[in-house]
Amino acid sequence: MGEGSVGIGLVGLGNIGTGVVKVLQRNAEVISERLGFDLRLVRVSDLDLETDRGVDLAAVRFDSDTDGLLADPQVDIVVELIGGYDVARRVTLQAIENGKHVVTANKALLALHGAEIFDAADRAGVDVAFEASVGGGIPILRSMREGLSANEITSLHGIMNGTTNYVLTEMEATGEDFEVVLKRAQDLGYAEADPTFDVDGIDAAHKLTLLVAMAFGARLTFKDIPTEGIRGLAPVDFEAAERFGFKIKLLGIAKQHEDGRIEARVHPTLIPATSLLSHVDGAMNAIAVHGNAVGPTLFYGAGAGELPTASAVVADLMEIARELRRGTAGRVAPLSYMPHALRVRATMPAGEILGRAYLRFTAVDRPGVLSHIAGALGERGVGIEAVIQQSRGEQAESVPVVILTHPAREAAVRDALQEIDRLPDVTAPTLFVRIEDET
């Protein structure tokens, strides 16, 4: 550690890495006033040494020697902003082995290899901080780890991906198809050239993995979370949702049941238009957390972007730097629960989940079709609450038929849909969207 300062080594000078440099430089005075000492960026490593990022690195060693950075005695804390799995895992574990504390924004890495990384850090007596991995600049993880730590968390519902929230907001506002809106999101920089992680719900599942561990002390990976994306939604779904008093959002949902089982899932969801989450539009994120002592809480803000995410990274740097100056580490367990208290928890199968459903059938416009659909649902105990049947006045033309069900087990609904989709008058697979009344 440099005299009077804590040394920072940054691996990965992409969008977020550049933001970290900007925040460290622009806010150096306020950071120093809050810490009582300086955070000093001493080394940066990246494969691209030519691109002008618009930041001054004259006083910083900038090269592609990541191993040298990880071993540098002047580097006290390593910031890993490479992204992905394999290289990031190697860099993170090597930094820990070298006795360095680590700050990362890599939710994918932690959602898959978190147990290995946190166990290694515990053995080495160093910290791994990752506030920026969920909700961008929103201090949701720190709030759950510390501010809400006296609570038993009963549920959380989150809009955790800005790309999908932007797409859904635009589809609702314009009535345009998914592909049209996605292309606009890509042109504006809200969506990647390959948007799979976002629109298929994988990014949200990564984040929910970390939130479930913090909320319930549950060891799991994102592969344990049933996940659906937003590709199947069409303008007619937003029109019908509005008529019924709902908005459509991609939610990450986790709940703890009285029998000790937990449920965790990511999927498009109809939520009441009167709920707070329904008003979270554009690329913004929001996470609602319910604790048994505090009651409902809501965290809202920019879930991505260079500076909001960098804000969370630098806040982690400041927290670890304080501990370094005190000669301590591990003041708070990284996942809120002590490592030995994290355990595999029994999960509730999706088929057992009880709730209302939104169903959109595509059927030939002729008499008797609705009765066949209603019969298949009724045989399995799935009651119908409301129906919208659009008729275009031309025999044999396929039209949407929208049904809201009464609360039913998901397995019963799925079983009925298998039969319905085999009916000769049903011309396309049925869209199934869950309804969450309490968000």
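(the above was protein one; protein two follows)
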Amino acid sequence: MVKYKVKITDIIEEAQGTKTFILDKPEEFTWIEGAHTHIGMLGFDEGEIPNKAWVRHMSIMTLPEDNKIGFTTRVLAPFSEFKDKLSGLQVGDEVILFKIGSRMYLRREDKPVVLVSMGVGIATMRPLIKSFMKDQTGIRELISLNVDSSREFIYKAELDELHNPKLKNYFVGTRNEFYEILNEISENNDAYYYVVGSDNFIKDIIKYLKNKNIPENSILLDKKEELLADYFS
């Protein structure tokens, strides 16, 4: 397994308690939209057994052509060991990258694509939206629906600047607003639905979509295959 030691080149405060970390991109490190990687704190692998408490799987919120690697995450107390160390990092400090995976890439099968996210879950959706803006091949329309009760919507200013007749972005602050829009969107049972958020949020959305006759194979999660049964049961 190849590991990359990379520097933090920027830290952006997106909202209260939410930060984007921008990292150097190794020349040979590449990915597709919707990919994730593992971020490790320095020293996580120095013992006989790696310290998994110092590692997290993070969605990459940039595209390779941006020539940088970015991830956005909540950094709020009480901290886990990983978040405690992450919160203390500064520009110029280093982290370890390893093991890229991708379950949330754009399906270009001449269907609509609906991105449903909660809070910082929009980080997984940003590169999908950006990739769609570069190339709409095989996607009838793309709809992004994000709910965040804080109303400090991450990336909203940036995404509101994107204009395409096949793109719709919705940011809402209440579940009532959220379900009003989702109810209308989900009348289309031919779409792919990408869902990112807390476990309870994901399970609620799956139940809702299944009640709207959306087939399970059209609901996509950023979860390992062996964990899917728990969400769809």
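Reviewer note on protein two: The longest strand covers residues 3-15.
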